[in-house]
Amino acid sequence: MCSKGIEWAKLWVGVGGVRLAGVAVTATSSVRGRAGSGVETRAELATQPSLVADYLELLKLRVSTMVVITAAAGFYLGSLKSGISPFQAGMAQTLVGIAMVTCGSSALNQALERRSDAHMRRTAQRPMAAGRISLAHGLLLGFAAVFLGTLYLVWQTNLLTGTLTLLTATGYVGIYTPLKRITSVNTFIGAFPGALPPLIGWTAARGVIEWPGVALFAILFVWQFPHFMAIGWMYREEYRHGGIRLTATQQPIGDAARNTVVQALFYAAAMIPVSLWPTWLGVTGMCYSVVAMVLGLGYLGYTVRFARMLRDPAGAASRGLARDLLKASVVYLPLLLGAMILNAKGRLFF
Q1: What is the mean pLDDT of each successive set of 10 residues along the chain, which is 350 residues long?
Q2: 218-350 adopts what CATH topology?
Q3: Where in the chain do CATH 1.10.357.140 domains reside?
Q4: Where in the chain is the domain with CATH 1.20.120?
């Protein structure tokens, strides 16, 4: 669900000037002050992320926002199926609960990966990897958010929705995250919790698991593979250095490139029929089908282009091809969901 732009944390760097870390900052300032380097200490403190910035990074706001958007699509379509307006308090309550559990899962994920994160340049400055937030602090925040978010969903929606959300968090943190250091199959396993949010949104509106909700799950499940194959190839050296096992980190590099491309192409091709499933189930009209077909062919086209990196897997151009596929995947999903919502069958009640 899910293995990833401008970092949200950078928007908050330096807010308040000094972190609220208390003891550690005070002790450091005192020691360096006695050494006659107070100016240097103030400069270092001024460039450190604030506690707010660390929380935003710890809770992975960008990833959590994407999860909430896909869950909102599921709730919207499920509400129309029930003949009720999706624009109701129930949607806000559902999304708040899902956001809490997602943010908590992100914190727990960083707690488990703090050592491997410290060995990768792109993640070394995460708050727990850099030691700015302690393990106990991160675990407490993560478990509290997951627990309270699940209870809130059960209270405001139904038991099924709360259970599915808890299973998503458990699968992501308890299964997918440890497997990342054991086997490259972790990508396939992690795609299951990564694809559950739209189904959770559907059950929040409908109270049952139905084929349209499963179709939404399938769309997100299949979409993830070209997306993550691109990410894996872009950062393959960092992942390898951090001990993360991916298809892209296999040896020799020729085998890694071939397996990465084959998986990306297979799922990009499968994306076309899977994205048409909602129309076959009567959830959307034919206009959506046309848009889905065009978007699917475009997604497949970028994946075919990505396959060019087989000519020189170790060359710098291969990373550029992976970056282009990543950008295409990030554009594809919201456009597909937007078309689905705009051409959904059912009557809106504002």
Answers
A1: 38 34 36 40 60 91 92 96 91 97 97 94 93 96 98 98 98 97 96 98 97 98 98 96 95 96 98 98 95 98 98 95 98 97 75
A2: Four Helix Bundle (Hemerythrin (Met), subunit A) (1.20.120)
A3: 50-209
A4: 218-350
Task: Assign domain 50-209 to its CATH architecture.
Answer: Orthogonal Bundle (1.10)
334 alpha carbon, distance to own chain's centre: 14
* Pick from 167, 271, 267, 265: nearest CA to 209: 167
- pTM beyond 0.70: the answer is yes
